[in-house]
Amino acid sequence: TPAYDYLIVGSGLFGATFARLATDAGKRCLIVERRPHIGGNCYTEKLEGINVHRYGAHIFHTSNRAVWAFVNRFAEFNNYINSPKAISGDRLYSLPFNMNTFYELWQTRTPQEARQKIASQRFTGEPTNLEEQALSLVGKDIYETLIRDYTRKQWGKDPRELPAFIIKRLPLRFTYDNNYFSDRYQGIPIGGYTALFDAMLEGIEVRLNVDYFAHRTPLGRLARKVVYTGCIDQYFDYALGRLEYRSLEFDNAVLETDNFQGNAVINYCDTSEPFTRIIEHRHFEGSSSPLTVITREYPRPCSGDAIPYYPVNDAQNQGLYRRYQELAQGTENVIFGGRLSEYKYMDMHVVIESAMNRFRSESRQASA
Ligand code: FAD
After folding, report:
1. ipTM score assigned to the predicted complex
2. Most buried residue among 13, 73, 287, 323 by CB atoms closer than 10 A?
3. Catalytic site residue 277?
4. 22 Cβ contact partners less than 8 Å away, ≥ 6 residues apart
5. How far, in Å, CA of 295 to CA of 317, rounded?
6. Count H helices, E strands: the chain?
7. Which letter does DSSP use for residue 115 in this model?
8. Annotated catalytic, 297?
């Protein structure tokens, strides 16, 4: 009999959650991870005494009590609230779009004034591209000041060449509330995400620097089932073609100040800078370091060895993904899960919930 019940490929949030639940239920798990560290894209590392979010700013938020209780088993969360700012031209604006933003744009003070202003600027036809879609949702000023050039940088394409459905909703909030998320629970794990993963994976065997594809057959023999959280097209040797992604480049700098920008996240919404955001990591947890660490975030094409971040969910890629999904459904003893296997942008709480559901249906099958 195989030594393990589950061979888990990837130590990100899906793999780690599944491994914890399975281990708690008495199953034997082995995790293989091709990176030199655990945690997937949530990974944080200490630099100048500050926990740096290596693969982009991660703010935990959820309204799901079971998910919140689960993560609180492994870390204490602080009361960080995400309130990003946006720079466009020589002005600074509040996000998400709310009464503060409307005041900064037009000096409107009441919800009624703001609603009228937006209504007078809306595109009223049937949107045929992202620009028209955004114009119909938020009107000309917000679009041109805060969305147009940011989107162009994010996707490397003119918004008029992008499909309308990329933006389904652009929430407008008619209160003076700069809290980006509307979930019940929100915060940053004190001590960083890597410490949270360390606690979550306690007592579970993890082999770092192991690429599943380099040892597929021998690794496969070690366990009854595989939980695969890597790219779904790679699992099938790209047999049907490659799924398209957007990548990001993170440029870190250590600066000799204890406060560079006064906020964790500032978006750069015009074309004067090629990056889309600057993250100042000390503001997530607070720090007594006399230095600060900032990260400029540059959207990039996903070619060569670039890390895939954002799926390009257009009709062609969705069609291709569905064909891979059919192959996956026909593959016995492999559970496909997580953002890369489902070819979907998912927030952390969504990934945890998805892993919980997959483990529950696994247990049900096993006991049936
Ligand atoms: P991953 O974290 O990508 O983990 C997959 C793991 O599998 C990786 O470690 C990878 O190395 C490993 N792997 C892949 N293939 C192999 C192989 N062949 N062999 C061995 N190992 C392999 N969510 C929020 O809730 N709040 C936020 O503020 C937030 N900010 C984000 C910012 C950015 C820039 C991005 C891109 C995402 C953000 N997210 C945020 C989403 C969050 O990152 C994901 O929900 C989460 O990381 C998904 O976990 P995962 O396990 O599915 O994937």
Report:
1. 0.99
2. 13
3. yes
4. 5, 6, 29, 359, 362
5. 30
6. 13, 16
7. H
8. yes
